[in-house]
Amino acid sequence: MKSLPGVLVGLAVGAVIGILLAPESGQKTRKRISSESDSFFKDLQDQLQSGLDSIKSQYNEYVDSAAGKTQDLVSQAKKKAKQ
Question: Domain extents for the chain?
Fold first, then answer.
């Protein structure tokens, strides 16, 4: 997961260099660059959303676990207070 940004940057740089060196007209090249950059940013957005979803899920699990443990501790404290 730590190398993902490096891989994405490498792919983007490679794609841009490949497009710029391709024997096409300037207009076609600009359209390809635009299309490739749109695709790259869409993929990046999807990856970021996936990461955020994972973080939210882990956070919610932690909060639920902490709430359950808190309830257990409150119950134990009430039982000891009654004794």
Answer: 4-82
